[in-house]
Amino acid sequence: MTAPSPPRPDTPPSPGTPAPGGRPGRPRITELLLSAFAGHRGVTLPLGPLTLLAGPSGSGKTSALRAYEALARLGGGAELAETFPEPAACVPERARADAQHRRGFRLGCTADGPAGPVRLEVAVQAEPELRIVGERLTANGLVLLETALRDPRRRTVQAAWHTAGGTPVTRGPLPDDRLGTALLPLRVAGRTPGQRRVLAAAEQMVVALRSAFSCDPRPERMRDPVPAGTGRLLGGCDNLADVLWRTRVECGRRHALLVDAVRAGCAGPVADLFAEPYGSGMVRALLDRGDGTRTELRRLGDGELRYAALALVLLTGPGVLEVDEPGEVPDALRTLTVLADGLDRALDPDQRTRLLHLAARMCERGHIRLIGAVSDASWAAAVTGATVVHLDRD
To answer: Are 244 and 229 in contact (CB under 8 A)?
Structure first.
């Protein structure tokens, strides 16, 4: 029998492949870079599997989550105008316009995975026209992609990406309204070791960024019956009843875990949480109290509703949540990142602690990561695995 050929040392592993030497097999974002974004200047936020951004109102927790969500959308191929509908709000308040009346913002992130740490930095012009004016993708100090706006009259940037070999750099135009890193797999052939290195880094960054789910449950929208639809949970959890209708049938094990979580965080006995038809094409959610009593969700308090919705998010996955999924990557090799603004809003001390313990258990498995914004994280000290990043008001 002929032994298989060893992998070529100059061929980086793909983002979904566990790498030798203990490198993680699932790409994930480990840093958020806010060079000049909204109220942040020169800020680097470390991100672990379970990260709490803590600080008073006005410290920039929400804007940090918004920056991550924007990068995720750009990584999925979204246009700049779709990603930043109000770009002026992202410009630092005291930023001065240059001689051409241009103002903008800068943000980025670091993704770790089989290709090693890869850093992405993006400069966006918000005024007078919204466009990407600079982008840089680097790994181990080597610039793999760099773009710059050379001619303001054209809606393109000049891009240069690493090739190595006889031609160290390849140059070409890229549109100024999309992330160049997300376009590289369509532009780079991958014939040379240098090209394969660029592709591995770009794909790792894109896979790490995508599958982000911004979640901020709105109890006032969760109480009424909702139309039966796709069964994919929206960011405000408005359609919780529709999702319960689906998950209770499709995944009994996870539904049982959800019932256990709701039982621990809601007042009174809870034997089941389910949905039923209500009128023409509508469904409503109820609690089964186990003694013949059924409680409509409209009767629950805001904290109970937010707790139940967040528990559902943590116990499901991309197939149930309304997220951008990289279909070319198997489910087992990608990570869902939940961005939860006001994670502790309306929760009592017992609910928030139980929810964080549930998050820690789910994040430990590696398929889900959570970045939550809280006003005070002193209560989280007792939860193993939670990283607290403190933000101060300027």
So the answer is: no
**Going by C-beta distance under 8 Å and a sequence separation of 6 or more, which residues neighbour residue 17?**
25, 114, 333
User: Please, are residues 136 and 120 in contact by the beta-carbon 8 Å criterion?
Assistant: yes
DSSP 3-state assignment of 60? Answer: coil
Length reported for the chain:
394
Location of structure tokens 């994040």: 363
- Count of beta carbons in the 10 Å neighbourhood of residue 127: 15
Domain boundaries, the chain: 20-47+59-211, 214-323
Which residues share a beta bridge with 143? Answer: 138
Residue 70 in contact with residue 83, Cβ under 8 Å? Answer: yes
Residues of the chain with pLDDT under 50: 1-23
Share of the chain above pLDDT 70, in %: 90
Angle at 307 between CA 301 and CA 310, to 5 degrees: 140
H or E element in which residue 69 lies: helix 61-75
**How does DSSP classify residue 290?**
S
Do residues 379 and 43 touch, judged by C-beta distance below 8 A?
Answer: no
